[in-house]
Write a structure and sequence with these properties.
Helix content: 55-70%
Structural class: mainly alpha
Largest sheet: 2 strands, antiparallel
Radius of gyration: 22 Å
Mean pLDDT: 91
Strand content: 5-15%
Low-confidence stretches: none
Length: 145
């Protein structure tokens, strides 16, 4: 397989650096051992930081032989993108799990594909749960025994 060459503007390169950082962070943040394929691509992209005039945002850590983002830049990316994603995905996943629970109460354990009626019911339940959570947050969420 041959090499791939990319030409991009400095702005596109900075966006690529951000994308690679965020993607690598997402893949590796939950693992005990880093995904080496992601780390290799991250290192390759960051190694071009001088060509992209990102000396203020990326540096070479000579003692460990890797390129890294400036701590403030990294924090800004995490605050901007990861926090927003976490907030959105939390509510989305909460609605999904609560709807799944309610569907199991109605239909019993669900296996395989849902019927069209079940899909419509699930969407209705998700909309209702989503609306309730928007109105009250988790303050009215209860677990009865």
């Amino acid at each position: 397989m041959g090499n791939v060459k990319l030409e991009m503007t400095k702005e596109q390169y900075e966006t690529l650096v951000e994308m690679v950082f965020l993607g690598t962070w997402m893949v590796n943040s939950t693992k005990l051992e880093l995904d080496e394929q992601f780390e290799d691509v991250r290192e390759l992209v960051l190694s071009k930081y001088k060509e992209g005039n990102l000396e203020d945002k990326v540096s070479y850590q000579e003692q460990i032989g890797v390129h890294d983002l400036d701590v403030d830049y990294e924090s800004k990316l995490l605050d901007t993108h990861v926090e927003e994603y976490d907030e959105f995905s939390f509510w989305d996943k909460l609605v999904e799990k609560l709807a799944e629970k309610e569907m199991t109460e109605i239909y019993g354990p669900l296996e395989g594909k849902l019927t069209e009626d079940q899909m419509e019911k699930r969407l209705t339940i998700e909309e209702e749960i989503g609306r309730k959570l928007e109105e009250t947050g988790v303050t009215k969420l209860t677990f009865e025994e």
